[in-house]
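Q: What residues go here?
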């Protein structure tokens, strides 16, 4: 065993038996490199990463490879989910080198931690050859490496506003600009299979979030059609677990067919919210079904006894990628019995299989009932038969060897999940969903918060790692979601506390954006800012949204101004290439027309809120009280003739109060 055996990260523990003399990231390793004048190898991955496992099996588990690594390098293993700051710095360096990023990420550093070369996965013979070449360069061409490293660091420390030429825009927020963004984005739509026109296909929640809001404003039918096509394929295809719910990270093809089978909390968290919003808008029962089943899977398999949610399920089990989820024909015949014949027609099951080595993976391209009708197997009792067949498969899967569980609990991803749950509760009204969301919030408040500050990671009853901007941004958004489904002022108080801490410790007034790392956290060779939305929205775009919502609820002009300054500087990128800034674009949507401020006062505030929330009204904030409140939107608001009243306001100016949701919706227009 090496020293990683003392770590808590599941990913680092996976490498604890390697013959490589691994260090965790920290002073001990960095000082050793300086003392011995050795280059550093930083190898970054995560527990559910398939190619990380492959590289470990092929290279890091072998003594002959480890000997070369140990002789010439100080070797550091990093869990990118535990240390996203380290990952961001060296991923940025790799991309500056002209190499496409990915994991495992292997970066070579000088003893002062400055990067000079990097690669992703390599097979063992290429890896050993590279190690020897890098060592040769370090010994014989050190000055060239040092010059190269200096250049990469200079690029990294350049302010984002300078790097991307971001300047404030005073052009306002217009529907014309939104139309330009949509047209630009639509050039990369896959209008046949959904998503964007590339493979692999990743669900991109912030793209769908923007399209839903753009449709709400413009009623452009093509925007809604693209969302529905994408969500239908994501809901029916192979990245969805048809047996118990939940989504895998992405499909390796352009058909949403065969996934990389790992299930990540952050994907499922965000997809809950998107499918819930789409259900509110369309009333498509496919969407509510996927929300319900995925929440059930999260509750059954991903929730810790403490109340937080684990990070991921691995792709591999029994040494085979996806083995937990795939089926041989004979297995299905044995499990399903009399149901096999119609089930095999529904899912095109065969002895040859639709994937590797005779395995079948469950995958549809059309609604279950429509597929059954086309296959001639539909009957009045079909829905019940289908449900029972999936239950049989779920029971059979219990006896399989499960994929590895990454059981660390991250504040950021739990924040995303709580927000997804609050949106799901608004759409479906199921009280158990609200209970799960509130319990998740209390977990973060009680277990991952100390003296008004967050911790990034929690495992085995202990917190670790100073929280990053992504943690604050996601948790603030979660708390704002919790307030708006409970009207409990605790969540607003905590959201303000965390926001003010973030402004004090992360904000760069010279650049107008937030650093990714806390001023009290560990200093790396560069202090990065995260501006571009990806599978997870950028922490800066999330903070801009949070400050806007908080500003509206609390009448805090300072929050509103800060949000506006951040968004206005993104205008050039929004118009040039919006697909990388769609969470910013979703906020832009809110700025093109006044945000509805809904205030509900009276004993039935929760019941009226619940009824109101069923409808898709994305550009709103909701406040409420059963009695009275000091919140600006609730001051001097009273019941009407003894009945609970709804006030529909814009910019703090309210229309006449009404006592029915129907009348309130009419006031919204």
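A:
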């Amino acid at each position: 065993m090496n020293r990683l055996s003392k770590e808590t990260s599941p990913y680092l523990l996976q490498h604890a038996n390697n013959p490589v003399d691994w260090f965790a990231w920290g002073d001990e390793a960095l000082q050793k490199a300086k003392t011995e004048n050795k280059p550093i190898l930083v190898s970054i991955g995560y527990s559910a990463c398939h190619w990380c496992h492959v590289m470990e099996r092929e290279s890091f588990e072998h003594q002959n490879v480890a000997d070369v690594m140990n002789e010439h390098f100080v070797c550091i293993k990093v869990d990118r989910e535990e240390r996203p700051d380290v990952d961001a710095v060296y991923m940025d360096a790799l991309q500056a080198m002209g190499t496409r990023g990915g994991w495992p990420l292997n970066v070579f550093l000088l003893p002062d931690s400055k990067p000079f070369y990097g690669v992703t996965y390599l097979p063992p013979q290429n890896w050993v050859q590279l190690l020897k070449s890098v060592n040769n360069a370090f010994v014989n061409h050190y000055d060239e490496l040092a010059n190269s490293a200096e250049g990469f660091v200079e690029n990294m420390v350049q302010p984002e506003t300078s790097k991307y030429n971001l300047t404030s825009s005073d052009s306002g927020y217009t529907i014309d600009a939104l139309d330009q963004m949509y047209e630009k984005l639509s050039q990369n739509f896959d209008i046949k299979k959904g998503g964007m026109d590339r493979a692999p296909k990743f669900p991109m929640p912030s793209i769908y979030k923007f399209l839903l809001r753009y449709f709400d404003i413009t009623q452009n039918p093509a925007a809604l059609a693209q969302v529905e096509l994408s969500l239908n394929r994501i809901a029916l295809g192979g990245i969805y677990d048809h047996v118990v719910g939940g989504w895998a990270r992405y499909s390796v093809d352009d058909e949403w067919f065969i996934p990389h089978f790992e299930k990540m909390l952050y994907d499922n968290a965000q997809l809950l919210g998107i499918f819930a919003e789409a259900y509110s808008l369309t009333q498509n029962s496919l969407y509510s079904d996927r929300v319900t089943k995925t929440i059930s899977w999260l509750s059954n398999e991903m929730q810790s006894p403490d109340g937080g949610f684990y990070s991921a399920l691995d792709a591999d089990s029994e040494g085979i990628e996806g083995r937990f989820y795939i089926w041989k024909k004979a297995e299905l015949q044995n499990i399903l019995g009399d149901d096999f014949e119609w089930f095999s027609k529904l899912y095109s099951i065969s002895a040859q299989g639709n994937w590797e080595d005779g395995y079948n993976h469950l995958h549809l391209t059309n609604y279950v009932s429509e597929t059954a009708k086309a296959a001639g197997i539909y009957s009045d009792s079909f829905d019940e038969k289908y449900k029972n067949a999936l239950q049989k498969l779920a029971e059979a899967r219990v006896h399989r060897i499960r994929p590895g569980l990454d059981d660390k609990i991250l504040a950021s991803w739990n924040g995303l999940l709580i927000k997804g749950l609050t949106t799901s509760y608004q759409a479906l009204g199921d009280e158990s969903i609200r209970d799960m969301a509130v319990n998740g919030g209390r977990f973060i408040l009680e277990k991952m918060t100390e003296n008004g500050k967050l911790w990034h990671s929690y495992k085995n009853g202990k917190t670790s790692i100073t929280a990053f901007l992504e943690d604050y941004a996601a948790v603030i958004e979660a708390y704002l979601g919790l307030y708006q489904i409970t009207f409990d002022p605790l969540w607003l108080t905590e959201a303000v506390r965390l926001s003010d801490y973030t402004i004090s410790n992360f904000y760069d007034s010279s650049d107008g954006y937030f650093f990714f790392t806390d001023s009290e956290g560990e200093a790396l060779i560069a202090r990065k800012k995260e501006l571009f939305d990806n599978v997870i929205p950028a922490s800066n775009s999330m903070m801009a949204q949070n400050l806007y919502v908080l500003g509206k609820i609390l009448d805090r002009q300072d929050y509103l101004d800060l949000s506006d300054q951040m968004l206005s500087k993104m205008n050039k990128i929004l118009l040039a290439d919006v697909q990388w800034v769609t969470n910013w674009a979703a906020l832009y949507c809110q700025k093109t027309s006044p945000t509805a401020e809904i205030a509900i006062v009276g004993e039935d505030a929760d019941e009226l809120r619940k009824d109101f929330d069923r409808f898709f009204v994305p550009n709103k904030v909701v406040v409420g009280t059963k009695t009275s409140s000091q919140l600006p939107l609730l001051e001097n608001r009273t019941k009407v003739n003894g009945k609970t009243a709804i006030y529909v306001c814009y910019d703090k100016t309210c229309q006449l109060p009404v006592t029915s949701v129907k009348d309130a919706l009419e006031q919204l227009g």
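A: Context that may help when evaluating the design: Residues 265-282 form the longest helix (18 residues). DSSP finds 27 helices and 24 strands in the chain.
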